[in-house]
Specification:
322 residues, 27% strand, alpha+beta, 12 strands
């Protein structure tokens, strides 16, 4: 039951310890995110009864002053009985969404990081499926499950074979000209959603580029185009970078005309090599569970699936609080 339950945002950064009364894999990022404006106290909500934290929820953005771009915290006290947890979660989700998400707008995407074997652990599975069911009540639907991958120093990187030559990306147009045909035949669920929304492949590529790449502070000289050495014909590209949290293979693609020849392995190795040579302590990447060819390429390159990511989206404004 929710009698005596107080649902409210944090009064300020000084209440972060209250929010940290529950645990999630992103907890270590919260203090810095608050300091840089990627999070705001009014976007971090708690459900409390008699001083006990029963639930929490939070949104994130890319830069100070931005609109909320992702819902990435939604946790309930694992000690709560399932029925009470559902009541607390329902009230927390609806109250916070009504306050944070502008009326009449589509809520930001929800992402949850999970153990790689989360379906095999009944306790984890039951808690997560409860969260998903509460999201569904507000109109959310599952979009995709993704593999979160990691390469660690000491893992071999394939040597260059000479089949491909690599050069830096010249400018935005140089890369967009390659991203566009890759986007047209993408197996990525987010790219497919952009196309289903009515965007052209070029428009979808521009959305991806402008929404992500300008935020990287690492050298753009790291970005590589792969070409056939004999003709200079482009084969694909890779974007090694460091986002706000980790070194990443941010994007990798092989042009449709050159698929099926094993080029992805050499392109991925080049991107990994650039980050390894820069002394990065790890390299992170992600791909959709359903993108079997890309998942296999990461596995061949020594990337290990250390987590899963499940994304939920809203196609229309979320439910109003009841």
């Amino acid at each position: 039951m929710t009698d005596g339950l107080v649902v409210r945002p944090l009064a300020g950064p000084g209440e972060l310890d209250l929010f940290l009364g529950l645990t999630y894999t992103l907890d270590h990022e919260l203090a810095d995110d608050l300091g840089t404006g990627r999070r705001r106290p009014e976007w971090l909500w708690v459900a409390v009864r008699d001083g006990r934290l029963l639930g929490r929820i939070a949104w994130w953005t890319k830069k100070d002053g931005g609109e909320p771009l992702a819902l990435d915290f939604f946790d309930l006290d694992p000690e709560l009985p399932a029925g009470e947890a559902a009541e607390v979660g329902r009230r927390l989700l609806r109250t916070a969404m009504a306050a944070v998400v502008p009326a009449g707008t589509v809520p930001p995407e929800y992402s949850r990081y999970l153990p790689a074997d989360w379906r095999e652990d009944a306790a984890v599975r039951d808690r997560v499926e409860l969260l998903f069911s509460l999201l569904a009540e507000t109109g959310a639907r599952p979009l995709v499950e993704r593999l979160r991958l990691e390469w660690l120093p000491g893992t071999p990187v394939a040597e260059r074979t000479g089949r491909l030559a690599f050069r830096p990306v010249r400018d935005r147009e140089d890369l967009l000209a390659l991203m566009t045909p890759v986007m047209a035949g993408t197996l990525d669920a987010h790219g497919q959603a952009d196309l289903a929304e009515g965007l052209t492949a070029r428009e979808a590529a521009e959305r991806h580029y402008d929404g992500e790449f300008p935020h990287y502070t690492t050298p753009r000289a790291w970005w590589r185009v792969a070409e056939l050495p004999e003709t200079g014909e482009p084969v694909g590209f890779v974007i090694p970078a460091h986002n706000a949290y980790n070194p990443v293979i941010a994007y990798i693609g092989v042009l449709p005309a050159h698929r099926g020849h094993g080029y992805v392995d050499e392109i991925l190795a080049e991107g990994t090599r650039i980050l390894a040579d820069a002394g990065m302590p790890r390299v992170r990447a992600a791909t959709d569970l359903g993108n079997v060819p890309m998942a296999a390429a990461f596995a061949r390159a020594g990337y290990v699936n250390f987590q899963r990511q499940v994304d939920y989206v809203w196609d229309a404004p979320g439910a109003s609080p009841s």
